[in-house]
Write a structure and sequence with these properties.
Order of helices and strands: EEEEEEEEEEEEEEHEEEEEHEEHEE
Shape: globular
Helix content: under 10%
Number of helices: 3
Strand order of the largest sheet: 1-2-3-4-9-10-11-12-17-18-21-22-23
Largest sheet: 13 strands, antiparallel
Distance between the termini: 64 Å
Amino acid sequence: MLSLATGSQTVGDDATSWAVQGVFGRLHYDYDTKYLIDINGRYDGSSKFAKGHRFALFPSVSAAWYLSHEEFMEGTSHILSDLKLRGSYGSLGNQSIDGNFRYVPGYAINRDQGYLIDGARGVTVTAPGLVSADLTWEKVTQWNVAADFGFLQSRLNGSFDVFTRNTIGMLTASQPLPGVLGTNEPQANAADMKTSGWELELKWNDRIKSIDLDYHASFVLSDALAEITKYDNPQGSLGSYYVGRKIGEIWGYESNGLFQSDAEIANAPSQTALATVTWLPGDVRYVDKNGDGFITSGKNTVDDHGDRSIIGNNTPRYQYGITLGGAWKGFDLDIFLQGVGKRDWNPDGRFYGVNGRWDVPARDIGSYWTEKTPDGFLPKMYQDDEHTSANRQTNSRYLQDASYLRFKQLSLGYTLPANLTRKASIDKVRVYFTGQNLFTWTKLSKMYDPEIIGTAARDTGVANNLSYPIAQAFSFGLNVTF
């Protein structure tokens, strides 16, 4: 292999492969358009797992009952125009793991060591890390019950779904191992997770003939939250999964403001366990929740977490969308709004403006504490990393409310009367204006975009995205159809 050669390297080599194989079948039955049933089955295999663990069966079944088609519902058709009850249960597999041969121990090769052997840098091979030989498919099973309905001659339509999803054998790091082992935990089918949620959708369509107005509106609202139901973490370490952990939960300290004087510091619980610095006025003051006179993280476990607690969750909750529109005498209007009703966010260093002696402060940061501005929102500014880190422990004072409502799109148009355009042998002429991302209502710091935060590390609570913010866009146009 080229990568094992010595000397000046100008080329490299790499080779890998993976494959999947499977069969799929479906049975559908419809009786009198009242009773529906679907049965599906698939048998999949993946080369990413060792022999004996490559194939798995994933069945599913769904059924529906059209109550509105039953004779005993005929008397309600003027009010309840449509009603269908449905339910389903099924499973799917996930083979997405890092690397294509994670079940095979692999040697690490360094062909450019930092020391000399016989006057030249040598090539070394290190012992492989741990692997899980019985690594196999992650299985996701889900059941849901739902109702689809229509009222008032189908002017009002909607649906409501309730679901539970169980992820069995999550592909993640195995149980935490002692640091003296000298290597990382292998990836394994080590955890189970349960996600519960629901979704509501409502649509209204109507026409007011007296003024020639067509209009419509729709509303979608959903929520879901996941929880770890199985994981081998006997110490209950907060740095890993543990049974009962809600995905996205944010552990941190409660804060009751900033120190304003040396006397306050002297009479407050000791914070030296967080950082071996001299705490000064302008530093964050943390709450001694367990009353032992010291601010600590304890053993950083579920049973002993010191003064830390769950102060928020960065999972987007109550996600919603609103669509409004209509048409009147050639004019047409469509509006789309979208948002999240509940979400917490732990900001990164950019929120504080300066991370070190070479940083340039970001714009839109809050005011700093100084002797002249004791009501400043941000803590006193330091150039040493240790003091800076001490004031940036995850805490309730700087936790952000990331809920938002965004005016995603506005489209306004006018179509010329057909009797005018036909004289010019034109079928249709429409002029329009479209605006995107017009306004955003949020309490989140202006340096973050609430729609894209957390796209890379949603589970950690760290705002590590540096994506270009979503831009506003305005367009004018003319559509001509011949």
